[in-house]
Amino acid sequence: QVQLVESGGGLVQAGGSLRLSCAASGHTFSQSVMGWFRQAPGKEREFVAAVSPGGTMTYYADSVKGRFTISRDNAKNTMYLQMSSLEPADAAVYYCASKGARWTGIFHTDTRAYVYWGQGTQVTVSS
């Protein structure tokens, strides 16, 4: 059974930083594209960032480019999202997701492309 468990969310002041983690089990983590998504109240879940299976290639939403960094440690079956210069607009529940399939070389930003999801971790940014 595939499990993705996020942690690291919390309350931070605008301009501050947080590091989210996603611990994976039950599938071949090192062969899967992994991604971070977020969902604010009343809004659709949106793509934040993705990382290739080997961790050498990344892709970001324009809204977080230059402020967020996605990474992974395949030896620990864990993915990370380092968030800096946080803004109130970044407040949301953050979800990690796995495509669960061999990478084709293309990053997908649609939630339907990801098979496995974590339960989410809340990020609150105070102004």
Explain what this protein looks like in three dimensions.
By secondary structure, the chain is mainly beta. It is 0% helix and 51% strand. It has no helices and 11 strands. The chain has strands at 3-7, 10-13, 18-25, 32-39, 46-51, 58-60, 68-73, 78-83, 92-102, 116-117, 121-126. Strands 2, 4, 5, 6, 9, 10 and 11 form a 7-stranded mixed sheet that branches. Strand 5 (46-51) and strand 6 (58-60) form a beta hairpin. The protein is globular and about 40 Å long. The relative contact order is 0.31. The mean pLDDT is 95.
> What would you call the shape?
globular
Low-pLDDT residue intervals, each spanning 5 or more residues? none
Number of helices: 0
Main structural class:
mainly beta
Distance between the termini: 40 Å
State the helical fraction. under 10%
Q: Quick check: average pLDDT? A: 95
Q: Work out the number of β strands.
A: 11
Instruction: Report the β-strand fraction as a percent range.
Output: over 45%
Q: Mind summarizing the main beta sheet? A: 7 strands, mixed
Secondary-structure element series = EEEEEEEEEEE
The radius of gyration over CA amounts to: 13 Å
